[in-house]
Amino acid sequence: MNKGIITCPQPIAGEVGIKILESGGNAFDAALAAAFSQWVLDPFMCGLGGMGIAQIYDKSTEQVISINFAGVAGSKATEDMWAKDKVTRSEISNLFQFSDFRSEIGYTSVMTPTVLAAFDQIYNKYCSMPWNELLSPAINIAKKGLVVNSNLDQYFQTGYAGGDKDNNPLQPNTYQRITASIGSKSKYTKTDGSVYTLGETIDMSDYANTLSLIADKGAKEFYEGELSEIIIKDIAENGGFVTSEDLKNYKPDFEKPLKISYLDYEITSPPPPNTGMSLLQMFKLIEPFQKELKEHGSYEYLKILSNAMSISHQDRLDYNADPKFVEIPVQKLLSDSYIKQKTTDIKNGVIPKSGNTEPGSTTHVNVVDTKGNWVGITHTLGWASGVVTPGLGFMYNNGMNLADPRPGMLNSISPGKARGSNMIPTMVFKNNKPIKICGAPGGAVIVSAVFQALLNSINYDMTATESVSAPRIHTESGKVFLESRFRSDYKDILLSDGFDVVQQPFPLNPMMARAQLITYDELTGQYDGGSDPRGGGVVFKS
């Protein structure tokens, strides 16, 4: 390998990234070009109206940095604006739900779009190629139109009427989502109101024009230029909370990631409001149980992981929030004394409670170049708001669905307050050098996927592809979810132990997040990549 390696869920975006490396760009150039392309290829997963988190290793300074651009509530939002209205919590998600879907779809679900500001900062600090050249592939893809592939076809067809796919009347179905605004309805449905089907092409020329404007005038056009005026006028006329000052004043946060030691490695993951502390907690909780973990997929393996992951997911729900607004006891949750207390519980057979799952619409890209730079970017629209400003082509996030409408709570609504995020691009170091990077799309199941992919690579010496493909578990909703490749009699023993276990009939469960992993072998000098087969992604090496 003389240029680099890339992994992501979209093959075309992966090809864009590897071509950037081949043309002389660095890992940061390739990651941004691929991410811009992901915006067009997966317009309900990510886009110009989105948010996210990145973790990078800059070889020139030998520094690892988390770049936080979580969505933040608009200035017109207030803590008590929905306090008197009936709200429920979804049993199969961690979302706040109203009968009119106000925090899930439509203009009142939108938080300040942050992703372009972060990409602009990454570009200015780390990239080597011209800004317009990094946007050019995405623009060309948009000009050709979006061909409905099998994943998008399934998205359009699932839950076409009558609540979501699980018949939850408080969760909008796909059709309600894509018709939540005039701009989205006119773009993603035909003149007769029907959805596009497999092989048909959706016109993305409006998105191409918007990206071309940003390519010519820079990110400032989105946040302060004529484009921002169009955006804010549309949001204001439709009762949204984001203002021109919100766009103009937004800046991403460059922070030191959280770090722990695990065996002979150091693992770094993003701080709150992202949930890197949960992943690091999992590693610390399992470290004393190396004997029990010796055989992958054994009953002992399942029991230890079920305990450790349930503890960490519950702590995520109990403590994670925006640290600019709430004091979060991160050091306590990662302290030796707290971990010792919880590992004692595991040894004594105490079954922990565990919170709810959060499916999500998200994507990820990893890039490593032979100059020694490492980049992982997870970016998202949440579940997608169904809001498209007419003529602009991109969809906005629906970050407000994780803002607590109850005053005085950990994640209560407040202007400028970030939502909690489960996105955790994570890096593993040995001898002070990065050797693994992993991230995933998929909501709360991201934490489980990244944890197990890295565990498979570290503890079981699996290849990158084996690491992201191996049988996986997830613990939430008070349950332990097992893929069908685990032995069913192990499930029965876990049930007798007191766990609430669900073994679903999927060898590769689509509920599980689609992990993306790159590894480096110090002994051989070889890079390896794995893209989760649950999502049909790609690895390109050059």
Structure description:
The protein is α+β, with helices and mostly antiparallel strands and 542 residues long. The protein folds into 2 domains: 13-49 and 67-251 and 381-402, no CATH class; 254-359 and 423-541, 4-Layer Sandwich (Glutamine Phosphoribosylpyrophosphate, subunit 1, domain 1), CATH 3.60.20. It contains 18 helices and 20 strands. It has helices at residues 11-22, 27-41, 115-126, 131-144, 150-157, 174-178, 182-188, 205-217, 220-224, 226-237, 244-249, 276-286, 299-319, 330-333, 336-347, 445-459, 464-469, 488-497, and strands spanning 4-8, 51-58, 63-69, 88-89, 96-97, 146-147, 201-202, 253-255, 258-262, 265-269, 361-369, 374-382, 426-430, 433-439, 473-476, 479-482, 501-503, 516-521, 526-531, 538-541. A hairpin with a 4-residue loop joins strand 11 (361-369) and strand 12 (374-382). Mean pLDDT is 93; it is low at 160-165.
List the helices and strands and how they pair.
Layout: E1 4-8, H1 11-22, H2 27-41, E2 51-58, E3 63-69, E4 88-89, E5 96-97, H3 115-126, H4 131-144, E6 146-147, H5 150-157, H6 174-178, H7 182-188, E7 201-202, H8 205-217, H9 220-224, H10 226-237, H11 244-249, E8 253-255, E9 258-262, E10 265-269, H12 276-286, H13 299-319, H14 330-333, H15 336-347, E11 361-369, E12 374-382, E13 426-430, E14 433-439, H16 445-459, H17 464-469, E15 473-476, E16 479-482, H18 488-497, E17 501-503, E18 516-521, E19 526-531, E20 538-541
Parallel strand pairs: 16-17
Antiparallel strand pairs: 1-11, 1-20, 2-3, 2-12, 3-8, 4-5, 6-7, 9-10, 10-13, 11-12, 13-14, 14-18, 15-16, 18-19
Helix pairs in contact: 1-2, 2-4, 4-8, 12-13, 12-15, 12-16
